[in-house]
Write a structure and sequence with these properties.
Elements: H1 8-17, H2 22-28, H3 34-64, E1 71-77, H4 88-94, H5 99-106, E2 109-115, H6 120-129, H7 158-164, E3 168-174, E4 192-196, H8 201-204, H9 208-212, E5 242-246, E6 252-253, H10 264-287, E7 292-297, H11 318-339, E8 346-352, H12 380-383, E9 384-390, E10 399-401, E11 405-406, H13 409-417, H14 436-441, E12 450-455, E13 458-464, E14 467-470, E15 483-485, H15 504-520, H16 540-556
Parallel strand pairs: 1-7, 1-8, 2-10, 2-11, 3-4, 3-7
Antiparallel strand pairs: 2-9, 4-5, 5-6, 8-9, 12-13, 13-14, 14-15
The site of calcium ion (CA) has 6 residues, from loops.
């Protein structure tokens, strides 16, 4: 839609004048990053023609479904590297099974080049906002609660876009987008939210059980006598994890009594609760007149607890076992979609959020199988994940896409497909590209051949087609840029000292364009506020801990 109103002449002008001409463009169209305009300038006519045909496909589809745009189910799997689900032969290689996701993969499109961000929080923020997480200062995965920070209310999430246009919206599972009131999912566009506020480190490194298994030293008063303790807030205590809320209402903490510590039994209960809520919400949503968006981000397979009761596997790893269990849960959801008779007009996405966790190597059973690297890094192993999209009425079953796609593209693509692109804000850069042509027309119809990979606030690497540069220290001569060929060297082990030298000028100017756009549209500062506001039933020990935490926050101002 966005390209139709823009003439080729305008596009050429835009490229000639670069950022100077942006404001004119920004009024009508979504503001993208610089590299998009390079590609648009070369393909404007073709893409405009495709877009016209796509509009027809979408309107015919809507008419066939009694005016109802498609439902969206987005299932994001935590910390599982490329190759670990959806590919039966690789299940054999790794000694566990994901039969339900494997079957699902045959029913839709599989992606070989889905890029995410290096860790949980940034990937999820990129999906929610359609933007590189550095732009919203959501680039860091916070580990230790409380945080006193989170996604800003000014960000326009995909849930807000869909909710505004009349979708029912539900979030279930991990959130990890901050613990301040404005960041809660029910304040970011979801009608209903049952969520784990923080990441899973709370259970894996901060409990008496984690300490008993050697994952932590002297953190829990239950496991050893603490001596000479002057500062009562040095050790994290009394944090909030399972929270439930509805749009416009106060949230409440779920399932824990005052005076009781969160333990791994609570973690397992929370996981099971999320799964049963995903099922019951799905049944409720399927029966409603409105279309729906169900966002399910399970906490499993992350599970350091070796006493877990997941299925036994030849692999034997604790996370691998939970992955196999989670596959069964996902199977239940897919079966329910079928039973409710909504499969044809429901888009289901199943994908990983980042690479495997290095710290869990050995016990988890996972590793970096095909691409090198782990969560928190910027080699492909950290940011290339399995992704599968099923949309029976549109996407050809068993199809594969070798085109590049970034998790932020889902934002723009979902908006396009659901007819809600007009609700995407025009006053900021949206990195997500509309990839509906790739879904509808298939392989080789993608509109992206690049991605900038940030490590925290810093640009760490840039990919263009099959080449990738890891940005060296400032001042390094451009002829020394370390360039890799990702097809020939998927583990990024052989720098093309000479063979890739032809690409160094392009990479350098590409980076300059990207940074020039950032000067025009600067990144936001991190949002700070008081943790856990808007929760009606905080435990007394949590309130007491917060008083000390707020006092410490004051000192940082
Ligand atoms: Ca993750």
């Amino acid at each position: 839609m966005e390209f139709i109103t823009v003439s080729k002449y305008q596009n050429i002008l835009l490229i000639l004048f670069g950022i100077l001409s942006m404001p004119v463009y920004a009024v009508e169209s979504i503001q993208h990053d610089a590299e998009h305009y390079i590609l648009l300038g070369q393909h404007a006519d073709q893409w405009a023609a495709e877009d016209k045909a796509i509009d027809k496909v979408l309107s015919d589809l809507k008419a066939r479904n009694n005016g109802k745009p498609p439902n969206i189910i987005y299932i994001l799997v935590d910390d599982v590297g490329f190759g670990e689900f959806g590919i039966p032969l690789l299940n054999g290689v790794r000694g566990f099974e994901t039969p339900n996701i494997n079957e699902f993969a045959t029913q839709g499109m599989s992606f070989s080049r889905m890029y995410t961000e290096p860790s949980c929080t940034p990937t999820r923020a990129a999906f929610l906002t359609g933007r590189l997480p550095v732009r919203s200062a959501m680039f860091e995965a916070k580990i230790v609660p409380p945080e006193g920070t989170g996604i800003n209310k000014g960000e326009v999430t995909i849930a807000e876009v869909l909710s505004e246009s009349g979708y029912n919206t539900v979030h279930i599972g991990k959130w990890h987008q901050g613990d301040i009131e404005q960041a809660y999912p029910h304040n970011q566009g979801f009608d209903v939210a049952n969520f784990a506020m923080h990441n899973q480190a709370t259970f894996n490194f901060m409990t008496a059980e984690a300490e008993a298994e050697g994952w932590a030293h002297s953190v829990s008063p239950e496991s050893e006598e603490l001596a000479y303790v002057v500062d009562k807030n040095f050790r994290p205590r009394a944090w909030v994890l399972g929270v439930e809320g509805k749009k416009g209402e106060q949230a409440s903490e779920w399932g824990i009594k005052p005076g009781k510590a969160l333990d791994s039994a609570y973690y397992d209960r929370l996981n099971r609760r999320h799964q049963s809520q995903a099922m019951s919400e799905l049944r409720r949503l399927a029966k409603a007149d409105k279309p729906f968006f169900l966002n399910y981000w399970p906490l499993y397979p992350v599970d350091f607890n070796t006493h877990g009761d997941g299925p036994k596997t030849p692999n034997g790893g604790s996370w691998v076992s939970r992955m196999q269990e989670l596959d069964g849960w996902i199977g239940e959801i897919l079966e329910e979609v079928e039973n409710q008779g909504i499969a044809d007009n429901t888009i289901v996405v199943i994908m990983g959020d980042n690479g495997p966790m290095k710290q869990a190597l050995g016990s988890s059973g996972f590793t970096d199988m095909i691409y090198r690297g782990y969560k928190g890094e910027t080699t492909e192993g950290a940011v290339r994940v399995n992704a599968y999209i099923r949309w029976p009425e549109v996407i050809m079953a068993g199809s594969m896409a070798g085109d590049m796609i970034h998790v932020s593209d889902l934002y723009t693509t979902i908006a396009r497909i659901t007819g809600t692109s007009d609700l995407i804000p025009r006053d900021r850069i949206i990195d997500g590209i509309d990839q509906s042509s790739l879904l509808i027309n298939g392989d080789n119809h993608g509109r992206r051949d690049y991605v900038h990979i940030y490590n925290g606030p810093s640009l760490a690497a840039t990919v263009k087609q099959q080449f990738k540069v890891h940005w060296p220290a400032p001042g390094t001569a451009s002829f020394k840029l370390p360039v890799y060929n990702l097809y020939r060297d998927p583990r990024e082990e052989h720098v093309l000292n000479v063979e890739g030298m032809w690409s160094v000028s392009y990479f350098t100017s590409m980076r300059e364009r990207h940074l020039a756009f950032k000067r025009k549209f600067p990144d936001s500062e991190e949002t700070h506020a008081r943790a856990y506001e808007g929760i009606s039933n905080l435990r007394p020990e949590t309130t007491e801990m917060l008083e000390r935490f707020y006092a410490a926050q004051e000192l940082s101002k």
